[in-house]
């Protein structure tokens, strides 16, 4: 038996639709921020970096708007079951998206510093690849959320390991650069934080995929996906592993 | 942590003449638990509730099949006296219906006909205990001889609850007990239901899903005479398994 889409109270449908429209608007801005921040870094485009920084205020404002609208639905409509899960997941999503927006803004800030320095060979392109991967995951996670697609959400969760691998590789690369020539340290530290920011975005995207699964099944997925970030255990010795 | 089963209903069918009102319902009602029956009008929830103390016996065309056991004893056994059964399984109705008697006599009525007291002092004690149990004592202790019908709606309903608990039942059935009450009186009665579950098994029929969510630990959803889903209240309201349950509790046209 199919569940009818419409509530007896049409205003309830409108409220729920509004909350979901807001979160999708917010998601669109965050996706753009990720793409633009990586582009600004590779193309050493200060203007674009500045625009990313400014646009973050809009994302923050939308987060507030989403949370207010969600609180209103909770207070006035007492949603249950699937409706309740929609509202709860939207609140979570808004927090995840807001953090991703902050990371993109931070990348843009560091970019304005990095353009003043000599570029590190290959670093910016590798970071852009990593950002591209996260942005694709974000797109799929949001598609999984809107289309209630558990399979796609599971796929996104698994792909986070790839992002972690990319981060590991960059971590080692920057470490090598810094050991080779201490004059690289400032640039490499900034680049490392940028890579870490993108790796963290991957975690937030994974959390969005988790919410897509929760929305459909009512249960959070089990935490059984592979973890790729091993850098917490890395020492600076030549033979570490 | 499973609680003792107070009432065990199996393959219960109810017919009103040719109407099949309850279709093959199995339910376990736990002791010291509030169980809510929800569902749209005509779904059979009140009919089923009324089976639990044989109130349907009073309707000529009603026919009940299957088995309903209270503490493992079949309540439809010919040896069972319905009057004794109803002393064990008390009932509170939608509209407060105090007898046109004093507050005291309303509560003392049941204990008197069941011979639960030997003298006036004992009866006084029973009345006070029941009124305290219904959270009404402090409000009425100085006017026990005034008519029960002179109380406010919420007080009248609590008087009916006091009347129901005066015979020390084991199960308390409530059919829409708050539908005629304002939010404050509703809150008081709900609070009382929560306290009652320390001693009784409470079964409540309600049209207010929020009320079911607030007061019950277990919720049963009835639809067209079927028991569609029965589970922990938290589960029913966050993650119902049956699409019909979801459709009903989220307020969609089913």
Secondary-structure map with pairings?
The complex is a heterodimer of chains A (241) and B (254).
Chain A: H1 10-42, H2 46-77, H3 81-114, H4 123-146, H5 150-180, H6 185-217
Helix pairs in contact in A: 1-2, 1-3, 1-4, 2-3, 3-6, 4-5, 4-6, 5-6
Chain B: E1 5-16, E2 19-30, E3 34-38, H1 45-51, E4 62-70, E5 73-74, H2 82-88, E6 89-92, H3 103-113, H4 120-133, H5 137-140, H6 153-165, E7 171-175, H7 183-196, E8 201-205, H8 209-215, E9 218-223, E10 226-232, H9 233-238, H10 243-249
Parallel strand pairs in B: 3-8, 3-9, 6-7, 7-8
Antiparallel strand pairs in B: 1-2, 1-4, 4-5, 9-10
Helix pairs in contact in B: 3-4, 3-6, 4-6, 6-7
CATH topology of chain A: Methane Monooxygenase Hydroxylase, Chain G, domain 1
**What portion of residues of chain B belong to β-strands?**
25-35%
Number of domains of chain A: 1
Which CATH C-level class of chain A is it? Answer: Mainly Alpha
The CATH superfamily of chain A is Phosphate transport system protein phou homolog 2, domain 2
Oligomer description: heterodimer
How would the global form of chain A be characterised?
elongated
Q: Name the chain pair with the biggest interface and residue counts per chain.
A: A-B, 20 and 18 residues
Verbal overview:
The complex is a heterodimer of chains A (241) and B (254). Chain A has 241 residues and is mostly helical. Chain A has one domain (3-236): Up-down Bundle (Methane Monooxygenase Hydroxylase, Chain G, domain 1), CATH 1.20.58. In chain A, 78% of the residues lie in helices and 0% in strands. The termini of chain A are far apart. Chain B has a domain at 5-97 and 170-249: P-loop containing nucleotide triphosphate hydrolases (Rossmann fold), CATH 3.40.50. The two termini of chain B are 35 Å apart. In chain B, helix 3 (103-113) crosses helix 4 (120-133) and helix 4 packs across helix 6 (153-165). The mean pLDDT of chain B is 92. Chain B has 10 helices and 10 strands. Chain B is globular, with a radius of gyration of 18 Å. In chain B, a hairpin with a 2-residue loop joins strand 9 and strand 10. In chain B, the strands form 2 sheets. Chain B has a 6-stranded mixed β-sheet, with helices on both faces. Chain B has a 4-stranded antiparallel β-sheet with strand order 2-1-4-5, covered by helices on one side. Chain A binds chain B through residues 1-9, 12, 78-85, 218-219, and chain B through 209-210, 213, 237-240, 243-247, 249-254.
